[in-house]
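Appendix B. Chain record.
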Amino acid sequence: MKKTDIKSLYLSELEQKLGDMGEKRFRAGQVYQWLHQKQVKDFGEMSNLSLSLREKLADHFTLTVLVLADVKISRIDGTRKYLFRLMDGNVIESVWMQYHHGSSVCISSQVGCRMGCRFCASTLDGLERNLTAAEMLEQIYRIQELTGERVSHIVIMGSGEPFDNYEEVIRFLRLVSDAQGLHISPRNITVSTCGIVPGILRFAKEGLPVTLALSLHAPNDRVRQTLMPVAKSYSLSEVLNACREYFEKTGRRITFEYSLVKGVNDNPAEARMLAGLLKDMHGHVNLIPVNPVKERNYVRSDRRAIQEFKAILEKSGIAVTIRREMGRDIQGACGQLRRSYLTGESEDHEKEGG
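Structure tokens predicted for this chain:
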């Protein structure tokens, strides 16, 4: 008998499953609370359930739990980058960041990625597999356990393209925002996409008021295609029209992520072109000094170029910020820690509590 991943089930689905097993409906609520509020690691910890029911759960369900494989702690700002081992031996990374508004976690949605963005280490070894909703939840649950802090904000901006794993990402979003679970407001969640147009249009109809972040990175198709292979499938006009529809259906402003690469997309003419492109869009630009990846030859723009680029956008009436760099000293870019771990090149790092 193939076991069901219990942590990926909605409460209504769990009620149905337990009902089929001859259990009363209210038992599902108790189990659900153990899974998503108390976040237990073993059925045996569900102390208000009978031993026979706990044994029955173990016989019918798997309980996904991630194991800490590595951690780096920034000496600059306390940011923590975690490497978690999945139950099949694969590893993924997640980042915990402390802000004045609370704790934010950046999670992965896939093991690796097949999008091929030229400035991202996540794509270097391609896509291994999608993550389940339970494996996405577990990144939050284990980080809360390790830090002792409640997570208040979530960014799905780690390794992977969320809309390449659409069904499981939607399931994760509904579970993590469920009032019977961790109950994180969808308004405190951001989903980042490289520009999968069908995914954006479908996502707009889900009724989830989350923030959509678009990896833009260039003001025209020619430059964007050199940075992001997905741009060859979906033009900027198609992507921006999809973003307009997302705003119209959700009322949520779009975040446009723009990684500045020296000599590639950071000159004043490109800043003016970007301002023209976004002048009627409801959103803001987040400028990101690119994190160097040793397998690529991209270099981050210098401070003067970044400030000039920002000033041009501001003078054109575009809302713009420069992303605060977090974890710069601990391989902060997506996929870097996982890749160094897999290749045996992981550097010395500070352990938990060290």
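Further analysis of this model is presented in Appendix C.
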